[in-house]
Amino acid sequence: MLTFNTLSHHRGLGRKIGTKLSLNAGVVQRISQPYGYDPLQQWLLDNNQIHYTSLAIEQGYSIDVNTGEFFNASGELVANDQAVWEQVVIPQVLDEYVY
């Protein structure tokens, strides 16, 4: 699941007229990414595949290229094989991805 950050501001003004009537006005502004925005677009390679390993490294994962081991942000071994990395760990990285 991807998490999108949004920002919202609101202001209101009210004025009471008599005992049973009041006038109220308000303005709301919401700032978020435009409709159709794809936060994973920056990871798209020339062949239209997403470079998930770079995304994982940005999220704190690391790779020991000498041993072929993959570690999470806490330094725990999460995979010792490229196939396990791609089929098990990368889907978890995508589930935890926070834009």
Quick summary:
The chain is α+β, with helices and mostly antiparallel strands. It has helices at 52-58, 82-96, and strands spanning 7-17, 21-31, 62-64, 69-71, 77-79.
Layout: helices, strands, pairs:
Elements: E1 7-17, E2 21-31, H1 52-58, E3 62-64, E4 69-71, E5 77-79, H2 82-96
Antiparallel strand pairs: 1-2, 3-4, 4-5
Helix pairs in contact: 1-2
Q: Strands of the biggest beta sheet: in what spatial order?
A: 3-4-5
Tell me the total number of β-strands. 5
Helix content: 10-25%
Backbone CA Rg: 23 Å
Task: Give a structural overview.
The protein is of the alpha+beta class. The chain has a domain at 39-96. It has 2 helices and 5 strands; from the N terminus they run ββαβββα. It has helices at residues 52-58, 82-96, and strands spanning 7-17, 21-31, 62-64, 69-71, 77-79. Strand 4 (69-71) and strand 5 form a beta hairpin. Helix 1 packs across helix 2 (82-96). The longest helix is centred in the C-terminal third of the chain and has 15 residues, at 82-96. The mean pLDDT is 78.
